[in-house]
């Protein structure tokens, strides 16, 4: 019943920031997904008799690869496979299920915020027993294995019924189909004051959550509408679709424009939020205000003690390097350690496992805590709701008070998408060459005090990660960061991160583009963005 299939290896299975992401057409090549999954199994040790969790964000090709993964897990010695009904598990829910059921690890099928459908993107990611994305040492080993793999093992059997909760067997391997929502919703109920949030909503507080036809729909309906009493329709685009309704399930001003329009309209609700394809990202809006992800991290950290799960305070705060330093100011004020890591949630794993930090966040709309080992969109929404229920003030008032206490880090990210890869590499290489000459220079009215290529030394396992982004630091706490995205699937994406700090007694009421105008001009000057990329303006501003 177990078949060993001889194959020649694929040369392009290098995991990026968050697993292997490719067009569906690439994954549809015969043996392609199988080779990558077998490469994962081949570098793991001791999975005999263990449990594997499998689920994904429901995008096109999800169900097929769930079936493949089940058959391969059975052929590779797993005793049990836990699958979310319908092949569904949001990324944070998968992380929780891995932890809760003591699984050996999990295979999460998602390309996150990238579009889905037969001509769009798919992805496979391995998470370890702590519930978090495999560290680089493992993803490097998977890649190395994928280049020389010559066979994979698969059980020859029909499809397992993944649409009905219950147990079945593939050979000796038990396949357990579980409710993808219940465990996660219970976890949230244990962290937050649901009674207080319910009372807030019952008192007329209005919210709008845009699930973007992606995986958070069923989670948000269960938690926000059923358990917290938000009126039906508070969750919009709640039904997950294989192509996300033809949209990019990426919660930003461009792709979640309808939500932004709603929140800036005259009759806006009190609170708006959205999540992405696999449910790990979030954006937060109040009536007439967008809270940048960097600010949201800082504001959540400053107020987390208002939620029961964090009433004892935080161990520390971590942010990715391109994320604004707003959270550092909160950590300093609270006397907490803070950490600056490379982009990618996996870098928070060691800090969380070691108990050094409780809350982490990234500018790329990711926030989360030690409750799982992934960023968690609905968790951020619920922590905000808990804070709003405790403080009984508007989002705008909370933001304003935050800036009056800590100062304001004006922030924006400019993305130049699908540019020529050689041009992008050239731009970064030229910046690298210039680094040593920049400190001491003035660009407009900005004085450069330091410039480097960010490197991270992990204080827990001692590993080093180099070339994680070019940083140019200016006097007064302003900064420009240049990085190439690690998650794109065509060409290169240049990200330019712009940050300007205004102290608490400075100007806190600029419009962001005005506050950043000098930095935007400086970024183009230093990196020759327009001439090197041929682009006059960014494709997306977040
Ligand atoms: C994924 C990762 C994040 C990361 C983001 C942006 O969502 O999980 O940790 O911040 O991608 O990555 P990129 O390399 O595209 O800037
Ligand atoms: Zn995601």
Please supply descriptive tags for the structure shown above.
Alpha-D-Glucose-1,6-Bisphosphate, Chain A, domain 3, 3 domains, globular, TATA-Binding Protein, binds zinc ion, 542 residues, single chain, 7-stranded antiparallel beta sheet, binds 6-O-phosphono-alpha-D-glucopyranose, 7-stranded mixed beta sheet, alpha/beta
Furnish the topology, listing elements before pairings.
Elements: E1 2-6, E2 20-23, H1 24-27, H2 32-43, E3 51-56, H3 62-75, E4 80-88, H4 91-100, E5 105-109, E6 121-127, H5 136-146, E7 151-155, E8 166-170, E9 173-178, H6 182-191, H7 194-202, E10 207-210, H8 216-227, E11 235-236, H9 257-263, E12 271-274, E13 283-286, E14 289-291, H10 293-303, E15 317-320, H11 326-334, E16 338-341, H12 349-353, E17 359-362, E18 366-369, H13 377-391, H14 395-406, E19 408-419, H15 421-434, E20 442-443, E21 446-453, E22 456-457, E23 464-465, E24 470-474, E25 479-484, E26 492-502, H16 512-527, H17 529-533, E27 540-541
Parallel strand pairs: 3-4, 3-5, 4-9, 10-11, 10-12, 15-16, 15-17
Antiparallel strand pairs: 1-7, 2-6, 5-6, 8-9, 12-13, 13-14, 17-18, 19-26, 19-27, 20-21, 21-24, 22-23, 24-25, 25-26
Helix pairs in contact: 2-3, 2-5, 7-13, 10-11
The chain binds 6-O-phosphono-alpha-D-glucopyranose and zinc ion.
The site of 6-O-phosphono-alpha-D-glucopyranose has 14 residues, from loops.
């Amino acid at each position: 019943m177990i078949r060993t299939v001889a194959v020649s290896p694929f040369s392009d299975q290098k995991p990026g920031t968050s697993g292997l992401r490719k067009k569906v057409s690439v994954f549809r090549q015969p043996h392609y997904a199988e080779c990558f999954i077998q490469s994962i199994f081949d570098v793991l040790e001791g999975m005999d008799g263990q449990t594997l969790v499998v689920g994904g964000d429901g995008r096109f090709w999800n169900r097929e690869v769930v079936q493949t993964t089940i058959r391969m897990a059975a052929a590779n010695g797993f005793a049990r496979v836990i699958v979310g009904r319908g092949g569904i598990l949001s990324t944070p829910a998968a992380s929780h299920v891995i932890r809760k059921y003591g699984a050996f690890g999990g295979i999460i099928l998602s390309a996150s915020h990238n579009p889905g459908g037969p001509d769009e993107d798919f992805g496979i990611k391995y998470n370890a027993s702590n519930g978090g994305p495999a560290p680089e040492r493992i993803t490097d080993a998977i890649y190395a294995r994928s280049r020389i793999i010559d066979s994979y093992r698969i059980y020859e059997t029909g499809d397992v019924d993944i649409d009905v909760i219950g147990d079945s067997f593939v050979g000796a391997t038990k396949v357990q189909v579980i409710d993808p929502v219940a465990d996660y919703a219970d976890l949230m109920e244990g962290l937050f004051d649901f009674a207080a949030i319910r009372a807030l909503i019952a008192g007329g507080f209005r919210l709008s959550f845009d699930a973007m036809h992606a995986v958070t729909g069923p989670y948000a309906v269960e938690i926000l509408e059923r358990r917290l009493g938000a009126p039906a329709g508070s969750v919009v685009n709640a039904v997950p679709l294989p192509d996300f309704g033809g949209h990019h399930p990426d919660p930003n001003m461009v792709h979640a424009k309808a939500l932004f329009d709603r929140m800036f309209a005259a009759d806006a609700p009190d609170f708006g939020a959205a999540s992405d394809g696999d449910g790990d990202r979030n954006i937060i809006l109040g009536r007439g205000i967008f809270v940048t992800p960097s600010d949201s991290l800082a504001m959540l950290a400053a107020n987390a003690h208002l939620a029961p799960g964090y009433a004892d305070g935080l161990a520390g705060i971590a942010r990715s390097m391109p994320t604004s330093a707003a959270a550092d100011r909160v950590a300093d004020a609270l006397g907490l350690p803070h950490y600056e890591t490379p982009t990618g949630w996996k870098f928070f794993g060691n800090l969380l496992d070691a108990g050094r930090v409780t809350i982490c966040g990234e500018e790329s709309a990711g926030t989360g805590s030690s409750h799982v080992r992934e960023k968690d969109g609905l968790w951020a929404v619920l922590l905000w709701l808990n804070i709003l229920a405790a403080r009984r003030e508007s989002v705008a008032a909370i933001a304003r008070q935050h800036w009056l206490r800590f100062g304001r880090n004006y922030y924006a990210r400019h993305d130049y998408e699908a540019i020529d890869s050689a041009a992008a590499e050239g731009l970064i290489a030229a910046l690298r060459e210039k680094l040593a000459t920049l400190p001491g220079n003035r660009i407009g009215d900005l004085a450069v005090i330091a410039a480097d290529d960010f490197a991270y030394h992990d204080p827990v396992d001692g590993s080093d990660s180099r070339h994680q982004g070019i940083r140019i630091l200016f006097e007064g706490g302003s900064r420009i960061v240049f990085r190439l995205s690690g998650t794109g699937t065509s060409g290169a994406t240049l990200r330019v991160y712009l940050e300007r700090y205004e102290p608490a007694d400075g100007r806190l009421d600029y419009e962001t583009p005005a506050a950043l105008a000098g930095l935007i001009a400086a970024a183009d000057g230093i990196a020759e963005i327009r001439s090197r990329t041929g682009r006059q303006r960014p494709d997306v501003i977040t």
